[in-house]
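Have a close read of the entry that follows and walk me through the local backbone shapes. See right below:
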Amino acid sequence: MFIHTSYIRKLILPILALMVLLQAYIIPSAIHADGPSITIKTEYGYKGKVKNGKWNPVKITLTSDKDISGDIVIETTDNYTGAASYVQHVELPQNTPKEVVIAIPGMFYSKDNNQIKFYQGSVENGKYIGFKSGTPYLQGNPGYGAIIGVLSDDPDTMNFMNVLRGDGYNLDVVSMEPTSIPEDPMLLDSLDVIVINGFSSDTLSELQINGISGWVKSGGTLVLAGGAGYPKTASAFAELSPIQYEGTFSVSELPQLASLGENPLNLNDGFTLSNGQPLEGSQVLYHTDDKPLFVTRPVEQGNVLYAAYDLAMAPIASWNGHPKVWSFLLKDDLTLTTNQNGMMSPTNQLSNLGHILNYFPSLKMPAFSGLVWMLLIYLVVVAPVLYLVLRKVDKREWAWWIIPLMAIIASATVYMVGSSDKTKELAHTINILELNGSGSSNTTSATAFFTPRSGDYTLEFPENTHVRLQRDNSGFGGNQADSSFIEVGSEETAVNLLNMPQWSLAKLWTQQSDNQQVGALNVEISLNDKGNIEGQIMNETTSDLTRVVLVIGGKVYELGDLGKNKKTEILATTVGKSMNMMGGNLGSLLYPYTNTGNNNEFNRERDLLMQYAPSTSWYTKGSYIIAWSDDPMTTYTHEGKAISSNQLNLWAQPVTVELIQNDVINIPFGYIVPTMSQVSAGFLNQDPNGMVNMSQGTISFEYALPQLDQGAAYEELTLRGMSVGQNTEFKIWNAKKMDWEVVEWKSGGYTINTDVEQYVMNGTMLRMMVSAQNETSFALPDLRLKGKVKP
């Protein structure tokens, strides 16, 4: 078929022109001719290491050929993890590189799900300025393993930890530059451990020192080491240090270290260590020559660990037992590659909280029975009643306007009934307060903001609050990053929500670096001579607590309500209902499902305990108190005005049991939960009921024993193997002989009642391993210990 060229010009050229205009409008990557020329360079995480679900730093370096000020914006468009724009104002001097650091959630980033933009003036009403060169988006794939940051004059310090990858650990060691240490503690959120060794910490700025200190208090682990160089290592952190420095001393052997590392250690001509006096609140983990070798000190939610030697000094630095030592010292911070406790990623934890926010107490659907009655009344009135009335008055033609009018009235009535509780801004907030027992709480918060009408909304949070956002628009529109702006400031954090539809939700997960000071539960619990718990719990928190529950020794004790400054006695005969958990899920035990669907008043509590709590450290340790309250723990405003809010608060605090009575030590079965420390199996996970499922291979696990200043003389050790699996072999580590011994099960048990102390490493730990010849399932053995306190 022949088509005239003039026709082609008339048809095609306007389409091409339209495409060019659309490209200029939709893809704002072209540089404005009259604007400044700006280059961009980015770094995501610490030397490319990023932690999934945690806050990670993005360092953006901008250089402009003109003086200009405006907003740098990181748009993230992944609807699953939250689509939003993170905004920070920046001043760009002419031809001077300017660094900007913004905290963003750790996730997979590519050119398809994020953009970096610059707006002259402000993002709300400023002019977009494209970048002359550089990559205007982030690229990176986050990990789930531990990240260890190192500040040391020797960049290879702690590189020996990489050997642990062969033992099933997922970790990265990152040598940090002093200039990369941020001032905001939240920018350190992706680091699990910071090691300072042989580095003059007082060369850091005061704000950097405060940033590290704030990170520790919010849950980080700081290692201070250096041997003779310890004074310069700890000079900036005297308030956090576990010891008071008292010079140095030399040793020719370190048997405690050799036992921990399961390998002989030859120190040749001697080895220099720092000497220190443990400070109040500190705990000596290991001694050498009656001097502290390792000392730990809790600092609010975090921990500071002192090591008496230089971690980079030969021969220990290259000793093949060194990784094993530090896998034990940092066991609470390291991550096994396999799923040993069924723990989910932080992103999934937050998603679970988002699901629970859907149980919005102040937003209720109209009762189904009421709607049925309204429909029946409408049908009766419109059909027989209206017909009879109009026939009687001989005005049946009026039905043409009366029936539509009644339909409008009925629809309006249904709408008014359904919208009666949806006429104002509302909030629903879930808070999880993890108490450390000394007055502070690490709080995780998730909140849902309800919009009664369409439009723009501005929410204000306290200063330095970091926010993740996900919009639920009830099917009207999508989650658009360019409609949700988050700007973290020193005075407040502002969240701007543009084009929110009527009756929609914005879900926000908030986190602050400062812990809340909410008090503690004062717990005194011991075992009586019959092995039953007794004691008391005093509520010294800031809230009246309801439905208090004690979980300990594999059992659940419901203790009722507990007001502020009130106490409850725990007696073996009056404790009330006790349920044997057997490793089951606490949520389904305390709040079993009913047939009432979403009207079940404990849906939120059950789901919190079933979906969120199992991934927390206090839950997996097995001994804790939980309680509830509904008072406001997290507040924010809408355009300066308070928001009507429903709040549910889960309080949790780990507990310890006094296992010594009259200098007699009696540790019953189930009171010490073993933790896995080494894995060489292709597959391994642990069910909520405690059963371990693994393929052919080997795992090591440890029992952390009570720390006693005077030491313990254990006289009897019993292991109870309720389910040891098929084709498995269990061994126990003999610390004195530095060798493994096979456990010979007899009727599901194994007892050692001579030379027990040779199996208990420094009185603080017992180590075991299990080997499987093929795929199998088993339970880790329960431990019972009896003995006396050393005189």
